Amino acid sequence: MFVSNLGSTTTLDGSALKIGIVQARFNDDITNALATACIAELHALGVPDDRITHVHVPGALEVPLALAALAQIEDPDPFSALIALGCIIRGETYHFELVANESGAGVTRVGMDYHVPIANAILTTENLEQAVARQTDKGRDAARVAVEMALLLEHLA
């Protein structure tokens, strides 16, 4: 029986991986910080800059469609993993739940439909202060999750 401990006992090596990032522009101060931390961590994990594709979409609801477009690219070198970056802050209406639920479900569906790991770092917070407190750690976490899951799927293949 194989048990994966990639993230806890070994150094993650992303040097051979190709990573796609989809970043929502809405709440761009937060999403830019997420992206900065994410890309810095990808570099720290060995992913070369020329193996990172970074695209922007208007908001969290558009992220899954862009992820699907990246996942569908069938060149000899497909994406090893994808990363979703966004920030949804609760307001006074039901819109928060709609955007949070639908974007989350869409991200999951793309990963399952295209069999590609997706690190979902679309923050859902009660207020701006919570988003700011999470932006750097969640950006780094997304990079680590993407690399770990890509390596795991390569190992299992």
Present the secondary structure layout:
Elements: H1 6-9, E1 19-24, H2 28-44, E2 52-57, H3 63-72, E3 81-89, H4 95-114, E4 118-125, H5 128-156
Parallel strand pairs: 1-2, 1-3, 3-4
Residues in helices, as a percent range: 40-55%
Strands of the widest sheet, in order across it, are 2-1-3-4
Q: Note the gap between the termini.
A: 15 Å
CATH class, named Alpha Beta
Number of domains: 1
In terms of structural class, how would the helical and strand content be classed?
alpha/beta
Order of helices and strands: HEHEHEHEH
Total number of helices: 5
Shape: globular
Q: Write down the CATH topology.
A: Rossmann fold
Low-confidence stretches: none
| Mean pLDDT across every amino acid position | 92
Question: What is the total tally of β strands?
Answer: 4
Radius of gyration: 15 Å
Task: State the gist of this model.
The chain is α/β, with parallel strands linked by helices and 157 residues long.
